Amino acid sequence: MRVNVIVNGEAMTADDVWEGESLLYALRERLGLPGAKNACEQGECGSCTVYLDGIPVCACLVAIGQAEGRSVVTVEGLADGESLDEVQRAFVECGAVQCGFCTPGLIVQAHSLIASTSGVPEDAEIREALAGNLCRCTGYEKILDAVRLAAARKAAL
Amino acid sequence: MKDFAYVSAPDVATAVRAITEPGAKFLGGGTNLVDLMRQNVERPDTVVDITRLPLDRVEELPDGRIRIGAMMRNSALAAHRLIRTRYPMLAQALLAGASGQLRNMATVGGNVLQRTRCPYFVDLAARCNKREPGSGCDAIGGFNRNAAIFGASESCVATHPSDMCVALAALDATIELESVRGVRRLPLVGFHALPGDAPQHETAIAADELITAIELPDLPVAARSRYRKVRDRASYAFALVSVAAALEVRDGVVTEARLALGGVASRPWRAHAAERALMGAPATEESFRRAADAELAGAVAQSQNAFKIELARRAVTATLRQLHLPGGAA
Ligand SMILES: Cc1cc2nc3c(=O)[nH]c(=O)nc-3n(C[C@H](O)[C@H](O)[C@H](O)COP(=O)(O)OP(=O)(O)OC[C@H]3O[C@@H](n4cnc5c(N)ncnc54)[C@H](O)[C@@H]3O)c2cc1C
Ligand code: SF4
Ligand code: FES
Ligand code: FES
């Protein structure tokens, strides 16, 4: 089938798409956006997190037909050219990235948390919001630092 | 995953017509169905995508009941003002389930019909009467730490994993079903079947029926209610045992009680015996424990899950105690 999706603000079309493909597969293998990662393909790790119509979802469990006509924002869409988004910058500055496999999903999920809260969220709130994003390297502490830093900077704007 | 035809339904009439095709299945948020299709546990010939149906609102009906559209996403329902204020146990149960991303995807209808998390159900090399009737049950005598303690049979000991449904059972919710044959309403309590000798029959829904809505009664006692979930880690894990409870106490005496347990049976387990024991009893720790005992008297353990019986007893007692404390309600 043919699928039309608005990805990071740009209308994109893919042809000869198999019904059984996921949005994640289409983004990575057909649309040239390898940011969202494929780790578990079961909704368990969050490394495939993207915005679908403004709401973070696990792209690995979105059947491609469900994305037809919808708007997707991936980690690639958060930066403005070479200029990183506040959350991305905080991850770099806080050393919240080791192997980096979980990072794109965490950044999208953290971006959504910060966009929907005012001020710096409580630790419990950050932990709950990021519970669906698994990281095997960092032990999460630096990730929490990064989220607090990005939230504090946004609150100070 | 095998090949299938994909149909997106713009309205209910199209959806219920499309589902009459042999081998057709509805697709909600896909968090369970897509996963099971990928593992070849579900093998539909046609997938009818219902996420574009205009059934994604919460409405207050003139008589005070609440109508929840079946396509409403779990996170949106949990955040809804009417749900948070009038049925806090339901908002808490939704937020205790899965992760933020998954709650953003999961629909109310899909949550009701989600399949068990018994590990053998998704292991095609294992024997499983639910997946393959008559093949046997590897959970009996096998890995059954999270199996049922109520209503299990010699063919299946699996649990229904939903948190949301436990609150819906305590609240006496109604399920609205629609097909080309018409509309009918069923109580949620009893909608999910006990396994008996046919664990493949999981609910009272017919193959051609669409869940269109869930209705909640106007239930003042529910404003003082709570959902407590006990699991292996603080977040993002299925329940070992969970409790949905509402309590009304007047002059130190229980005048109304609603109680349901999760993680303990193939259905959300409405605790009628405990409710009866509570009615008219003094609102004390001892009454709460006695009510828990009354319910758990019927519990039967598998080889690895005896701990659930004591865990359930304590979880019930603690939830009631918490509700009764001043400021203890949600
Ligand atoms: C990693 C992970 C962790 C999870 N943790 C929890 C947890 O802690 N607690 C919990 O409660 N749940 C948990 N879940 C399960 C999750 O809540 C369910 O997968 C979800 O609610 C299913 O909803 P859906 O809309 O995605 O359903 P789908 O996957 O789209 O469908 C599920 C089933 O329902 C049918 N269906 C869907 N909608 C309708 C309808 N309106 N009418 C008729 N049939 C319909 C489908 O045909 C399919 O058989 C978890 C899931 C995952 C992947
Ligand atoms: S408990 Fe039920 S679902 Fe699990 S293996 Fe046995 S029959 Fe299958
Ligand atoms: S790859 Fe989607 S949640 Fe793990
Ligand atoms: S940095 Fe390696 S998984 Fe998170």
Fraction of residues in β-strands of chain B: 15-25%
- CATH homology-level superfamily of the largest domain in chain A: Beta-grasp domain
- Reported CATH architecture of the domain at 223-324 in chain B: 2-Layer Sandwich
Strand order of the largest sheet of chain B: 4-5-8-6-7
- N-C termini distance of chain B: 43 Å
CATH level 4 superfamily of the domain at 223-324 in chain B: CO dehydrogenase flavoprotein, C-terminal domain
Pfam families (chain A): Fer2 (PF00111), Fer2_2 (PF01799)
Protein name (chain A): Carbon-monoxide dehydrogenase small subunit
Domain 2Fe-2S ferredoxin-type (chain A): 1-78
Organism (chain A): Acrocarpospora corrugata
Written overview of the protein:
The complex is a heterodimer of chains A (157) and B (330). Chain A is built from 5 helices and 5 strands. In chain A, strands 2-1-5-3-4 form a 5-stranded mixed sheet, with helices on both faces. In chain A, helix 2 packs across helix 5. Chain A is of the alpha+beta class and 157 residues long. The longest helix of chain A is centred in the C-terminal third of the chain and has 16 residues. In chain B, strand 10 and strand 11 form a beta hairpin. Chain B contains 11 helices and 12 strands. Helices cover 27% and strands 20% of the residues of chain B. Among the domains of chain B are: 45 residues, 2-Layer Sandwich (Uridine Diphospho-n-acetylenolpyruvylglucosamine Reductase, domain 2), CATH 3.30.43; 102 residues, CO dehydrogenase flavoprotein, C-terminal domain (Enolase-like, domain 1). In chain B, the strands form 3 sheets. A 5-stranded antiparallel sheet of chain B has the order 4-5-8-6-7. A 4-stranded antiparallel sheet of chain B has the order 9-10-11-12, sandwiched between helices. In chain B, helix 5 runs antiparallel to helix 8. Classes of the chains: A alpha+beta (157), B alpha+beta (330). At the A-B interface, strand 4 and helix 4 of A face strand 1, helix 2 and helix 6 of B. The structure holds flavin-adenine dinucleotide (FAD), iron/sulfur cluster and FE2/S2 (inorganic) cluster (2 copies). The site of one FE2/S2 (inorganic) cluster has 10 residues of chain A, from loops. The site of flavin-adenine dinucleotide has 30 residues of chain B, from strand 2, helix 2, helix 6, helix 7 and strand 8. Chain B: This is Carbon-monoxide dehydrogenase medium subunit. Chain B: GO terms for molecular function: FAD binding; oxidoreductase activity. Chain B: Keywords: Oxidoreductase. Chain A: Keywords: 2Fe-2S, Iron, Iron-sulfur, Metal-binding, Oxidoreductase. Chain A: InterPro entries: 2Fe-2S-bd (IPR002888), 2Fe-2S-bd_dom_sf (IPR036884), 2Fe-2S_ferredoxin-like_sf (IPR036010), 2Fe-2S_ferredoxin-type (IPR001041), 2Fe2S_fd_BS (IPR006058), Beta-grasp_dom_sf (IPR012675), Diverse_Oxidoreductases (IPR051452).
